[in-house]
TrEMBL record, chain A:
<keyword id="KW-0812">Transmembrane</keyword>
<feature type="transmembrane region" description="Helical">
    <location>
        <begin position="108"/>
        <end position="133"/>
    </location>
</feature>
<feature type="transmembrane region" description="Helical">
    <location>
        <begin position="194"/>
        <end position="213"/>
    </location>
</feature>
<feature type="transmembrane region" description="Helical">
    <location>
        <begin position="241"/>
        <end position="264"/>
    </location>
</feature>
<keyword id="KW-1133">Transmembrane helix</keyword>
<feature type="transmembrane region" description="Helical">
    <location>
        <begin position="316"/>
        <end position="334"/>
    </location>
</feature>
<dbReference type="Pfam" id="PF02653">
    <property type="entry name" value="BPD_transp_2"/>
</dbReference>
<keyword id="KW-0472">Membrane</keyword>
<dbReference type="InterPro" id="IPR001851">
    <property type="entry name" value="ABC_transp_permease"/>
</dbReference>
From TrEMBL, chain B:
<dbReference type="InterPro" id="IPR003439">
    <property type="entry name" value="ABC_transporter-like_ATP-bd"/>
</dbReference>
<feature type="domain" description="ABC transporter">
    <location>
        <begin position="6"/>
        <end position="235"/>
    </location>
</feature>
<protein>
    <submittedName>
        <fullName>ABC transporter ATP-binding protein</fullName>
    </submittedName>
</protein>
<keyword id="KW-0067">ATP-binding</keyword>
<keyword id="KW-0029">Amino-acid transport</keyword>
<dbReference type="InterPro" id="IPR017871">
    <property type="entry name" value="ABC_transporter-like_CS"/>
</dbReference>
<comment type="similarity">
    <text>Belongs to the ABC transporter superfamily.</text>
</comment>
<dbReference type="GO" id="GO:0016887">
    <property type="term" value="F:ATP hydrolysis activity"/>
</dbReference>
<keyword id="KW-0547">Nucleotide-binding</keyword>
Length: 343, 240
């Protein structure tokens, strides 16, 4: 065995600003909340809007998280991701309608049980659909971005038309489960119960994803694969299989997001996924392509910005998130938490 | 002499319209360090990348212990026991040193005795075990890159320019670690531009030019024949 080397290992102490740099994106959330507090005249309105913004952000995160990993891992741009949102919403709502007796009963346990069944049904359907979508539509166009955009958009259109064939062209209005209707009052502010549930589910999904990515071997492979897929394969891991697994999981999460988004808006249409894609893409881009943490922070910023601006200046709501994206990309052109790509 | 651990027979590799390897023949003996030498751009890195499967051989055969691995995907080649240290080190900058090593231990948890051996070869890795690999210095990153290959026993190690751009003290550490590996009976195919390292470690030597193998023999012979070095590589080792 070798002797110790002559050189002593050292690691330079970084300047304060450089050490703070990784935390800057996280700090943007409280900064935006404080700015909202200063701009909104009523503190109760501010509290309602903040919870609403966080709930919206959580749902966008759930829908977007799969897309960012799919892009990061295999450099695949999936414009068809919105199809899973729509299908998830339709399958979930269909299950909820079937379980009408459970959802209309004034029992939180029964309501949540029905919601769980609907969520699992939606996730199973979109997971299977994700597997087929990857096999039929995405696999033939690996490495060709332009073809990926065209073919996945085509896939989205086909799925939207299939939804119209199966469920009809009309919007479907839905009622939330009985116990999730209405609002609770906190510090004088009315906060919708459903939004609190959405915040809770979003947090659980984020923490679970983070735990899997940080503490399991498969998570390590995914994180390493986002950075340098070629090297992961040279270590002996079949990245293609991992990618298919991530694609299926991402599709299932989009399905979950679809159910929650549908219940949030209380109406579903075949095009709802397509419409949500604008926000999803903004979140994925400002977060940093391939970064789950960046996606989470970006989603919360987008949700808060949308709610605050819609209250203060409704006409500006549509462009507020585009403005947010422009500002963040001017600050960090690769997104808030850029993934270091090896190639 | 026993059968070689690795054998390339007339391997051609094209990258886009470029014909990089043009009929490479190579034998890597078991339990020895085989140097792959030559000027920049003659196909050394392409040879290693073709063996590991990153690029496909269009013609010819690659045999690992007699088994044809030419058409196998990269993960299967790696799992057959080929450890690869690429020229760009290929470390995962966002992962900690520990996570990089855990990932490299493909067959299960890290063997503590083996890890101690790796730490003895590369002490900085123990110091920065919980640090993100992206924060390491260039030399420490190279140590991590080689340590990842060493953390499990492999049938063959493909190592591409491990001393490139490193300070002399770090080069000594690298050379000692590779000698440790060699002393354990490892079979190594090593691309190296630092001739003093090549001379110290190499048993056999193969020199490439224009995508072909132009000379194969003992490292000792090449190291002592300035005229041969001049003819094959356009320079003399004495300059180093």
């Amino acid at each position: 065995m070798s002797a110790a080397p002559e050189h002593a290992p050292t690691m330079a102490q970084l300047p304060l600003m450089q050490r703070l740099a990784p935390w800057m994106p996280v700090l943007l959330i409280p900064v935006l909340i404080v700015l909202g507090f200063l701009a909104i005249p009523s503190s109760t309105s501010w509290l309602t809007l903040t919870v609403s913004g966080l709930a919206m952000g959580m749902m966008i995160f759930i829908m977007a998280s799969g897309l960012t990993l799919v892009f990061g891992l295999m450099d695949v741009i999936n414009f068809g991701h919105g199809a899973f949102v729509s299908v998830g919403a339709f399958v979930g709502v269909s299950v909820l309608l079937l379980l009408g007796q459970m959802t209309s009963a004034p029992s939180l346990a029964l309501n949540l049980a029905a919601l769980m069944v609907a969520v699992f049904g939606a996730m199973a359907a979109t997971g299977v659909m994700g597997w087929a979508f990857e096999k039929v539509i995405v696999e033939p166009v690996y490495g060709h971005h332009l073809k990926q955009i065209l073919v996945t958009m085509g896939g989205l259109i086909v799925v939207e038309q299939l939804i119209i064939v199966l469920w009809g062209p009309e919007e479907i209005y839905i009622a939330r489960p009985e116990a999730l209707k209405g609002a609770v009052t906190f510090a004088g502010a009315a906060i919708e119960k459903y939004r609190l549930v959405a915040v809770g589910i979003g947090l659980v999904v984020f923490l679970a994803m983070r735990w899997v990515l940080r503490h399991t071997k498969i998570g390590l492979i995914v994180r390493a694969g986002v950075e340098n897929g070629e090297m992961v394969q040279a270590l002996g891991y079949r990245l293609r299989l991992v990618f298919v697994g991530v694609f299926i999981a991402g599709s299932a999460l989009a399905g979950l997001g679809g159910v929650m988004w549908g219940l949030y808006q209380e109406v579903i249409t075949a095009h709802m996924g397509n419409q949500a894609m604008i926000l999803i893409f903004i979140v994925v881009i400002i977060g940093g392509l391939g970064s789950v943490e960046g996606c989470f922070i970006g989603a919360l910023l987008v949700g808060l910005m949308q709610n605050y601006v819609a209250f203060l200046e409704p006409k500006a709501a549509l462009i507020s998130n585009i403005g947010l994206m422009v500002a963040i990309l001017m600050w960090r052109p690769m997104g808030m938490i850029p993934v270091v790509k090896a190639k | 002499m026993s059968d070689p651990i690795l054998k390339l027979e007339g391997v051609y590799t094209n990258i886009a319209q470029y014909h990089i390897l043009q009929g490479v023949d190579l034998e890597v003996p078991r339990g020895a360090v085989t140097m792959l030498l030559g000027r920049n751009g003659v196909g050394k890195t392409t040879t290693l990348r073709t063996i590991i499967g990153h690029w496909r051989a269009h013609e010819g055969r690659i045999l690992l212990d007699g088994e044809d691995i030419t058409r196998l995907p990269t993960p299967a080649i790696a799992r057959a026991g080929v450890g690869f240290v690429p020229e760009d080190m290929g470390i995962f900058a966002d992962l900690t040193v520990e996570e990089n090593m855990r990932l490299a231990a493909v067959s299960g948890p890290i063997d503590p005795a083996r890890l101690d051996w790796v730490f003895s070869a590369f002490p900085p890795l123990k110091t920065f075990w919980k640090s993100e690999a992206g924060n390491l210095s260039g030399g420490q990153k190279q140590m991590l890159s080689i340590a990842r290959a060493m953390i499990e026993e492999r049938r063959l190690y493909l190592i591409d320019e491990p001393t490139k751009g490193l300070a002399p003290a770090i080069i000594s550490t690298m050379a000692r670690a590779l000698r440790d590996l060699k002393d354990q009976g490892a079979s190594i195919l090593l691309v190296e531009q630092n001739f003093s390292v090549a001379r110290a470690l190499g048993d056999g030597a193969n020199v490439m030019d224009d995508g072909r193998m132009v000379w194969s023999g003992e490292m000792k012979q090449l190291a002592t024949d300035a005229e041969l070095q001049e003819r094959l590589m356009g320079l003399s080792m004495e300059a180093h």
